[in-house]
Amino acid sequence: MQSLEQIKDRINSAHPGWQAEIVPNASPANQASLLLCPRQAVEIARFLRDDPELRFDYASNVTGVDWLKPGFLEAIYHLYSMALGHGPLIIRLRTGNRTDNVILPSLTPVWRSCELQEREIFDLFGIQFEGHPDLRRILMWDEYVDHPMRKDYVPADSGEAKP
């Protein structure tokens, strides 16, 4: 597999206006990732899937993260190439904030395996995935107004939290 720097350069050379930034990871796993600009994320995702040298054809995992102190939410995708046998490539999409700017593009049109996982992130973190084919709650009931995986979540009294 190409290095993260090479993949970033490949993205930037394919279309000079695209923005991808390497995000280091100081944890023991030491897996850096690419932060994509949400406006270009679908096009970059298609490029990562369709480029003959990359062919990231499978999104194995999509998860949400609440960064309470910086004040934004992220959707993180783990990509693999089943065709070429490499991965993971980790890409991130970041919301503008945690309150009224929580819209990200859905990558389900690129990788169908994202569909249920993006729904779970919507349900538990509140990220609105624009272009998702079926964005509705998957774990909580429809009338539930909160997002239980947010770091500032306060559980309701047991009598209040009934569907």
Task: Give the topology.
Elements: H1 4-14, E1 20-23, E2 33-36, H2 41-50, E3 58-67, E4 72-81, E5 86-94, E6 103-105, H3 115-125, E7 128-130
Parallel strand pairs: 2-5, 6-7
Antiparallel strand pairs: 1-2, 3-4, 4-5
Main attributes of the structure:
single chain; 163 residues; alpha/beta; Beta Polymerase, domain 2; 5-stranded mixed beta sheet; two-stranded parallel ribbon; 3 helices; 7 strands
**What percent of residues adopt helix (DSSP H or I)?**
10-25%
Beta-strand level of the residues, as a percent range? 25-35%
Determine the N-to-C terminus distance.
48 Å
Question: Gyration radius, to the nearest Å?
Answer: 17 Å
Order of helices and strands: HEEHEEEEHE
What kind of sheet is the major sheet? 5 strands, mixed
Report the CATH superfamily of one domain: NADH:ubiquinone oxidoreductase Nqo5 subunit
How are the strands of the largest sheet arranged? 1-2-5-4-3
Structure description:
The chain is an alpha/beta fold. The protein has a domain at 4-99: Beta Polymerase, domain 2, CATH 3.30.460. Helix content is 20%, strand content 26%. It contains 3 helices and 7 strands; from the N terminus they run H-E-E-H-E-E-E-E-H-E. It has helices at 4-14, 41-50, 115-125, and strands at 20-23, 33-36, 58-67, 72-81, 86-94, 103-105, 128-130. Strand 4 and strand 5 form a beta hairpin. The radius of gyration is 17 Å and the shape is globular. The model has no long low-confidence stretch (mean pLDDT 94).
In short:
With 163 residues, this protein is of the alpha/beta class. It has 3 helices and 7 strands; from the N terminus they run αββαββββαβ.
